[in-house]
Each structure stands twice: as C-alpha cells, then as structure tokens.
Amino acid sequence: MSRRAKPLLQDEQFLKSKPARPRDPAQPNLPLDPMPDRIEPCLALLKTHPPKGPDWAFEVKWDGYRLAIHIEPKGVRIITRGGHDWTHRFPAIAEAAKKLGVGTAILDGEAVVLDDKGRSDFGALQRSLGGRGGKRTSTESVFFAFDLLYFDGHDLTGSELAVRRHLLEDFLDGATGAIQLSEEVYGDGAVLLENACSMGLEGIIAKHRDRPYRPGRTGDWLKIKCVESESFMIVGYEQSTVARGGIGSLLLAGRRGHDWVYVGSVGTGFNTKDAEYLRTTLDKLKTKRPAVALKGKNLVFAQPTLIAEIEFRGWTHEGNLRHASYKGLREIQDNAAVFDMTEKPAG
C-alpha cells in the first residue's frame, strides 16, 4: 500500500512537518513508566472558526474510526475509542505496527479508507468492514497517526504536544504503508480551512502546541468543519409505500444529559439496500414508548440503539438539522458519541 493523503500539502503555500532534530545521544536515561492498558482519548471541541496565533498546529480532519495502536512486548493490540479490541478487524495495520521496530509504543490516530483523490471516505470504510456488525477485515484501511502517547517505556501524556509530535515525526519518518504520519501543516487557519473545503475535505483540526494530552473535550484540540457531520441516535422511522425499502425518513435525536432531544429526520443518503437493512433492524427494536415526544402518521418508534453518522448544513431556528444526509452507521465498539446538544452553536 503506497497511497498517500496529503491534499492540503499540494498547495505550495503550506509546508509539511518540519524535519525532526536528531536525537541527542547524551540525554539521560529516564526511569521506565508502566505501560497503561488503555488511555482515554483526547477529543476535539467543535468550533465554527479556526483559532489564530503561533500556539496552534493544524492537521487534516480524518473521517474514519478513532483507534489506539498498542505495541507491546507480547504483540500488537488495536483498541477502539470505546476500549474494544479490534486487532482482528485491521490486519494490515496490525502487521505494519509489528514492523515499526520499537519495543513499546501507543499511537493515537484514525483508521480511514481513501478515495482516488486521497480523501477519507467513511462510507467506504464501513463497507470494507462489512457494515454495522459486519465481520469483515479491512485490508485497505490506512492508519494516520497524529499523536504518540507512550514510547520506549516512557509515558508521554504529560509532555506538551510539540514534544510528542517531534518524537512521532522521527518515529514515522517516511512511512508510506498501512501506518502513516498525519502531517502537520503550517499557515493561517482560516486560509487552511478554505483550502480544505475547496478540496472536498471534511475540515481541519487545531491543536494547542503547549498542552499535555488530556482526555475529553478540554479545548486543547478543536475541530472546524467544512460541512458539519455528527453522530445522532435513530429513534424511529417514517413509513413509506413508495420510498426505497419502505423508509421515507429516519427520525434522529441528540443527547442532553440523560434525555433524548429530537433534531429532525433524514431521508437522503441511503440506497435501497441500506433502507432494507435499517427497516429490518429497526423493526426488531420497535417500542411503544418513544424516546422523543413526537406525533404523526406512519411513524414507527424504535429503542435508541442504532447510531447514524449524519452530514448536515447547520441548524434551523426550531433546532432541527438543515439539509441532513445519511452517511452510515457507527459501531457500538467505536463508542461513537451521540451529539451533545450543549455543543450546538447558539442561534
């Protein structure tokens, strides 16, 4: 596998990651830290505009599955965001990790499938895995590493991002196979975002260079999107006698605390095969106690179990998604976070 994905780097006004400095052989030997079984991931906080100033680094926003690769003395483990072992689902990535030539490391990154223009395609990734609940192994996936949390016996989570990136770039220098470096790009965030959007990318990620690795949405990492895409719970569907698969639209909800909040419906983005699968699955989850207070003809309510990735163009004044389009289902093992309504932009 040799496909590279650096669409932002094709523009000469942006530079790729700065060359790593050679390691200092005179640096002291530090005591070894115990290798953690799992590290809760740092998550990006949604913002409408990129930050300004030299303290921020930028990367492409990948559209795939967040994974952590644990390279351990006894072998390699690939762990999902929710803590599930998916080593068997990504054999090419696991094999590439074994060949990196390091005793211990934890790489944080995203598994994606690239289209012919080097852009990540979530639908293609889902298909490569056999869809939700599928048993296939994805041989065409590429893991783009964007952080190094543990390396050569040392816990790096307390170090600032600039140090972690320096080590990561040195570690993955020139890697072109199933594991590659998620390149850092330099330039004005607003121009970078415009460039990314013009290329059909999902958006960019901004990371504060001086911050340690902290779990959750702390604001150390920010995501700025060209087209908004979030995970919502499917709480039912609208029956149709003419639409493909008998589904006119899917009913969606976001989360507010322990409650579900209706955010509208989506009737585009799925084909007949998708619709048939969704209807069969949702019919098995039918309930007479809907998760949201909603009335209407031909509505079938389902237990909140299926999580859909939805692309949309903003919010209406009523709090519904504008121009929503279905992209695919998220896996439970991926620990997809259903959209938190407290993150919805005001207005």
TrEMBL record:
Entry-linked Pfam families: DNA_ligase_A_C, DNA_ligase_A_M
Catalytic activities: ATP + (deoxyribonucleotide)n-3'-hydroxyl + 5'-phospho-(deoxyribonucleotide)m = (deoxyribonucleotide)n+m + AMP + diphosphate
Highest taxon of source: Bacteria
Annotated keywords: Ligase
Residues covered by region (Disordered): 1-35
Domain ATP-dependent DNA ligase family profile, residue spans: 134-257
One GO biological process term: DNA recombination
Keyword presence, Ligase: yes
Transmembrane spans: none
GO molecular function terms listed in the Swiss-Prot or TrEMBL record: ATP binding; DNA ligase (ATP) activity
Record-linked InterPro entries: ATP-dep_DNA_ligase, DNA_ligase_ATP-dep_C, DNA_ligase_ATP-dep_cent, LigD_ligase_dom, NA-bd_OB-fold
Family: Belongs to the ATP-dependent DNA ligase family.
Cross-referenced NCBIfam families: NHEJ_ligase_lig
The name this protein goes by in its record: DNA ligase (ATP)
Species of origin: Rhizobium chutanense
